[in-house]
Amino acid sequence: MYGHYKGEAHASFEGKISALNLDEVPGATSCETPGLKPIDGPPFDFLVVPINPATIAILKKKLSAPNVLGAKGSVNHTHLAVGAQPVFEAFDNFHGECSVITRMFPLDLLEAMLSNGILRSVQRFPD
Predict the structure, then answer these.
(1) In a domain, 58, yes or no
(2) CA triple 87-58-76, angle to 5 deg
(3) Quick check: 54 and 2 in contact, CB under 8 A?
(4) What's the domain range around 89?
């Protein structure tokens, strides 16, 4: 997913994430942006990371570790935004009813994620 937005987007991560050392990712900051703000606040950590080829490789390695994403993962919320516009949002440890994609999300990527089983279903909400 990040590959579609390299150089254009930022991702935020919120939760008990200090052990992930995401603050070591080049360009990482604890400052919110117009499109990425903390949801819960303390005691959760909050970091924003630019999305580019170098950071994508680092994030893939860090986020694919056990107990990072998912129901019992250390990342409670993650968002992807281009400027102030949200693209993808996952809340409450990726709870099935708490993940959102916006119209900025590419349809071909959505279809690929559905066919590969990364996403199980999609429900469209009225504008």
Answers:
(1) yes
(2) 50
(3) no
(4) 2-115
